[in-house]
Amino acid sequence: MGENVFISGASRGIGCEIARTLAKEGYNLAMCCANSIDSLKAYTESLCDEYGINAKAYQLDVSSESSWSEIGPIIMSEFNSIDIVINNAGISYVGLITDMRSEDWHNVIATNVNSLYYSTNTFLPGMVSRKSGRIINISSMWGDKGASCEVAYSTSKGAINSFTKSLAKEVAPSNIAVNALSPGVIDTDMNSCFSAEDMNALVEDIPANRLGTPTDVAEAVLSLLRMPTYLTGQVIGIDGGF
Ligand code: NAP
User: What CA–CA distances, in Å, run from 98 to 102, 128, 147?
Assistant: First the structure.
């Protein structure tokens, strides 16, 4: 029987492709999203049919403590143990910091950062008692480099990098690997706010001369799952050499 993986934000983009890549390898999937639950349920059924895995879809708002309190125990009872956690769900905000409403700031931080606290407190205790587990956080190159007009987003991704390095130290004695993947510009809905001109300008800055794809990131996740747990506390770029 395959290991059980929790993936947040699996309804679209990178998370959706991570789910397919892991399903092909026989991993069982507990997948969540915020709003697109009907399409996530349909996608989950298609993965079960195609790959013969056990997969379930949950409407879990990762930014909300009450949502975790309600759905977390259901996931734990339906899957018994979660062996691997992929904290992928995230939102961006593009605009001047001085134009940003405080509720938008708090939403970015709650979705991208607070979610890691809730996720960890839901799934880590089981990993510690089994002395085995892996956590992969999806960060962003902007968390290291900083992006103009994306101060909140860059701040949240910088926090994910620190969270990853600190938690890795805390749980290494329990044989749990905690790493982050730090994508560059990936072709998903998240970048639909940018014009074709903006995207072309971004591509010019990418040494690989193309946008990344969700498959690039999903393949990196799979490779990381195959690494020894001694590889921990790392923030690994997948950015075409940006
Ligand atoms: P996307 O296409 O916009 O998809 C976002 C996913 O996250 C959706 O499944 C969405 O669910 C889910 N989500 C958003 N808020 C949520 C919440 N509060 N609770 C639960 N699920 C929530 O984004 P993406 O490009 O795939 O990004 C995935 C991750 O990669 C993010 O952490 C992002 O920061 C990171 N990343 C992306 C890029 C890029 O260029 N695309 C680059 C670097 C890093 P619904 O469908 O229900 O809304």
Answer: 10, 43, 15
* Other beta carbons less than 10 A from residue 137's beta carbon: 26
Spatial distance between the Cα atoms of 88 and 46, rounded to a whole number of angstroms: 21
Quick one: pLDDT band at residue 90, thresholds 50, 70, 90? very high
Average pLDDT over residues 144-165: 98
Tokens of 2: 């395959």
Q: Can you state the angle between helices 13-24 and 214-225, rounded to 10 degrees? A: 50
Ligand 1, atom nearest to 141 Cα: 43
Complete DSSP assignment for 94-120 = -S-GGG--HHHHHHHHIIIIIHHHHHH
Residues marked active site are found at: 153
pLDDT over threshold 70, residue 127: yes
pLDDT at 1: 66
Residue nearest to atom 18 of ligand 1 (CA): 61
Q: Quick one: tokens of 133?
A: 């587990």
Ligand 1 contact, 62 CB (< 6 A): yes
Residue 23's pLDDT is what? 98
Across the range 128-133, mean pLDDT stands at: 98
Ligand 1 atom nearest the C-alpha of 67 is 19
CA of residue 230 relative to chain centroid, distance: 21
The best mutation among 59, 91, 112, 205 to test binding of ligand 1, ranked by most ligand atoms within 8 Å of the C-beta, falls on 91
